[in-house]
Design a protein that fits this description.
The structure holds two protein chains of two kinds. By secondary structure, chain A is an alpha/beta fold. Helix content of chain A is 29%, strand content 28%. Chain A is globular and about 55 Å long. Chain B contains three helices and four strands, in the order ααββαββ. In chain B, strands 1-2-4-3 form a four-stranded antiparallel β-sheet, covered by helices on one side. The longest helix of chain B has 78 residues. Classes of the chains: A alpha/beta, B alpha+beta. At the A-B interface, strand 8, strand 10, helix 3 and strand 11 of A face loops of B.
């Protein structure tokens, strides 16, 4: 096509903020020219993916888009990991449109969820991936691995309604792990070996588990900047107080929770024939990245700790300088999915 | 890996969407066709206009030559008409030369009138009656003359004045 490809607009929802990223033409190689903006939201209007006051939420979103002059259609949204459920499944080998009603039928039966009225989707995983997952229709062969992703239907509907109110058209609502995978692919650092990735968002830390270049699991760590004395619910504020005891406590908690989830991955997701988790990647708005890296390397034995640091991005607003951004927001702004068994 | 938790649009919505898209596509195609035909017609008209302008320019260039040709043709036609007219006239000069050549010596024609295409009224002065008879006889014997009729003879001081009517033989 001769027509210039539209810019990629991606939004990552955090506990109390939204990161907005604009990547020219949505191309991986244009990441360095990405523009980043952040909307801090009041707890009365929004909380961890849930829109509490649609009018005020929409007004703030609309105002930001108008100020930035970005395209307001075909926007990709990455949900907070805490509101979504990811589950590896072994499903009958059939085409995706035919499998969807089968999975729909199994929700609440073979697939137990902590909420009713689920909005769900799934993606096939590579056939070679030997996973430990719930098997739909036991005994039926052949079965193929797939990743089941679900979120409360009301949450998706309320988000869509709020975005519609703001005049912003959502084209994709995905989970952060998928966005991160796209960003990693663009950075040519696709995790092929069993890998844990800790991403510092604006105000939470998410853990993701990847294997064979695919996402298998995501969760949100019980860490919040406020707990460690950072004002404004922002990890960046913790950086300013890095010398304090709060930062040390945060590192201790981070290492403990990382170890706990490493054990979980070992026993719940890994099969006997597969190698152990040996990689721990750290990404996002990491406060004092060198200190965090050194601490985890010392505290978590047998793990290779590696920072994933894309170039600093330009803030969209006039007064902004360069700053880091979560991989999830960057990935959401990139066009196209990643190659998989689809 | 692609995940989209947005609900898929209903069949009605999708049908409506595709119908609208189809309609837009048809309208765009029709618009493109109209533009194509309009451009074609415009180009054709332009070509015709160019040809007309060229023809007018050539006509202007050829106008003097045409007028000259026309003048020549008019003259030619006039000449033809005149020639035709001249051919349709009786050969008066030839006839008179013949009649004059028949006159005896000292005889001369004093008056001639053309009565019709074949007939002359002639008045001649001759020296004597013998010359008159000789002249009448000579005229009668001419193959070109069908009939000679003497109308009168009168003696004059200069000689004998003869008035006669001569009818030429045009069939000859």
């Amino acid at each position: 096509m001769l027509r210039k490809k539209a810019a990629g607009i991606g939004l990552a929802l955090h506990a109390s903020a939204i990161e907005l990223v604009h990547v020219p033409e949505g191309k991986a190689e244009a990441q360095k020219n990405a523009l980043v903006e952040r909307i801090l939201l009041s707890a009365d209007d929004y909380d961890n993916g849930y829109v509490k006051n649609a009018e005020r939420f929409a007004a703030q979103l609309k105002q930001t888009f108008q100020r930035l002059g970005w395209r307001r259609w075909s926007v990709t949204l990455a949900l907070p990991s805490s509101v979504s459920v990811l589950r590896p499944l072994l499903v009958p080998k059939m085409k995706k449109p035919k499998l969807a009603p089968v999975i729909q039928y199994q929700i609440g039966k073979a697939i137990a969820l902590p909420f009713s009225n689920a909005a769900f989707d799934f993606a096939y995983l590579p056939d070679s991936l030997d996973i430990v997952g719930e098997r739909l229709f036991p005994g039926q062969a052949p079965a193929v691995p797939a990743l089941f992703v679900a979120a409360p239907g009301e949450l998706i509907q309320s988000l869509k309604a709020a975005f519609d109110l703001a005049g912003v058209g959502l084209s994709v609502v995905e989970v952060k792990g998928v966005s991160i995978l796209r960003a990693l692919r663009a950075l040519r650092q696709l995790p092929m070996a069993p890998t844990m990735l800790l991403e510092f968002g604006v105000d939470r830390v998410d853990g993701h588990y990847f294997q064979a270049g695919s996402l298998l699991f995501s969760h949100t760590l019980d860490l919040a900047p406020e707990k460690y004395g950072a004002a404004g619910g922002d990890w960046a504020q913790l950086t300013l107080q890095a010398a304090g005891a709060g930062f040390e406590r945060m590192l201790t908690d981070l290492a403990r929770q990382a170890e706990r989830f490493r054990t979980f991955y070992r026993h719940m997701l890994r099969t006997d024939g597969q190698e152990d988790v040996r990689e721990l990647w750290i990404a996002g708005n990491v406060p004092e990245p060198e200190r965090v890296q050194a601490f985890l390397r010392r505290d978590l034995e047998g793990l290779q700790v590696r920072p994933i640091a894309p170039a600093a991005f330009q803030m969209a607003h006039a007064m902004g300088g360069l700053r880091t951004c979560s991989l999830a927001a960057i990935g959401a702004a990139l066009h196209g999915g990643t190659d998989d068994a689809n | 890996m692609q995940i989209n938790l947005l609900p898929a649009p209903s069949l009605t919505k999708r049908l409506r969407h595709w119908t609208a898209m189809g309609l837009v596509a048809v309208l765009l195609a029709m618009n493109a066709l109209l533009v194509f035909f309009w451009a074609g017609a415009h180009m054709l008209m332009q070509q015709q206009n160019d040809a007309l302008v060229k023809a007018q320019r050539e006509i202007r260039q050829l106008q003097p030559a045409y007028e000259e040709q026309n003048r020549l043709m008019t003259l030619s036609k006039q000449y033809e008409v005149l020639t035709e007219w001249a051919n349709s006239r009786p050969p008066v000069r030839t006839d008179l030369e013949l009649l004059a050549s028949l006159l005896p010596s000292r005889g001369y024609i004093t008056n001639v009138e053309l009565l019709d295409e074949r007939t002359y009224w002639i008045r001649a002065m001759l020296p004597d009656m013998a010359a008159v008879a000789s002249y009448m006889y000579a005229a009668e014997r001419q193959r070109e003359i069908a009939q000679v009729k003497a109308l009168g003879v009168e003696r004059k001081e200069a000689g004998i004045q003869l008035e006669m009517q001569t009818t030429m033989d045009r069939e000859h």
